[in-house]
Amino acid sequence: MPAPAGPAPSPPEPLFGDPAFPPGRAAGLARLAHFVPRSGAAYAAGRNTDPGPDQPGAVSRLSPWLRYRLIDEQEVIAAVLARHRLPDCDKFVQEVLWRTYWKGWLERRPAVWSRFIEERDRQRDNPPDPLLLADAEAGRTGIEGFDDWARELVGTGYLHNHARMWFASIWIFTLRLPWALGADFFLRHLIDADAASNILSWRWVAGLQTAGKTYLATADNIARHTGGRFAPRGLASEAVALVEPPIGAAGPVPPAAPAPPPDPALLLVTADDLHPEALWTPGHPVAGVLVVDDPALLWGDRARGFVNAAMTDTAARLGAHFAATPSLRTGLDASGLVAVAEAAGVRHIVTPYAPVGPVADALAAIEPTLAAAGVALHRVRREWDEWFWPHATKGFFPFKERIPAVLRELGLT
């Protein structure tokens, strides 16, 4: 399995001290509670405006907690719909569902993930303009706004969604740098670095995701939605879509593993879902809890630092929930899992379903060894994903039409 970022990762810091994004479920729930009153008209009116770092804005800034499912999409939408009618908060609901849509889309087309890794590695080994690439990543291009966002991303691990779109458009169409290296730059620095949301968003800007449809950043749009902070000159006046070989028709959503029998099992926790207690069947005996903080499965030090601290929070929470002492491990390796399972006398390991990305690749790589040792790996998928992912067949707009009906089926409206 290729490493997410190429070079061997440095060890994560033991604590994540960014006050803007305190790790842990309680912090995410507090951020959600603070945002809910503003998730209706205020969000719809101001969501495209980027006031700048450390300035109050209309967006929720919940993405780090959602990315690692310290809080999950269903409870976020439930909280918002408890305060607002769906027509009054539909812009925010759709924003959350974009994340779900991207994941469902990639589940049905995993070859796009493999193609990205191959393209990134090829471009990294032989970039077309190494000096320009270095200047773009360091914020030294001379393009107003773009350079500021590059420094903001590296310095804070976060960018407003609209700034992410402007940045990607300038990277691809003005600087003419490879889109895969831009997506990789984001993945290496975003706290909320996510395979599906990030890679597919860059593809969308480039005209690959919806073939021929691109996103062009303009000076007027940037000035209007940054309160006049930036009005860059010399931007590309047209965005000619990139092209690629066909990716083939979408396949079905892969089936989740069969439900585990009611025998004692180990709970395996990875960075892709840090609220697994919500998935555990009440009464199912827990033989042990393994929390795997593997820095090789995350892209950058900011993501690793956030997850490292969030894992500590998760372990404490799970220890109280299951009345067990979780084991913290730093590597997702088959031999270690087999040894723990044998020591506990169990033949079943249960883990939240990992969508397409590094964790899913790692689980697929170790599963044959587990099976050969007589240990079954059960991936449990969330109800939210089971309901929504099958509708990620084409573009977002057909998917969007299904949102009200699925929310009714889930009992949220």
Automatic annotation (TrEMBL):
GO terms for molecular function: deoxyribodipyrimidine photo-lyase activity; DNA binding; FAD binding. SUPFAM superfamilies: Cryptochrome/photolyase FAD-binding domain. Keywords: FAD, Flavoprotein, Lyase. Gene3D superfamilies: 1.25.40.80, DNA Cyclobutane Dipyrimidine Photolyase, subunit A, domain 3. FAD binds at Y43, F92, D192, A193, D194. Pfam families: FAD_binding_7. It comes from the Bacteria. Binds 1 FAD per subunit. Residues 92-216 form the Cryptochrome/DNA photolyase FAD-binding domain. This is DNA photolyase FAD-binding protein. It comes from Novosphingobium aerophilum. The lineage of its organism: Bacteria, Pseudomonadati, Pseudomonadota, Alphaproteobacteria, Sphingomonadales.
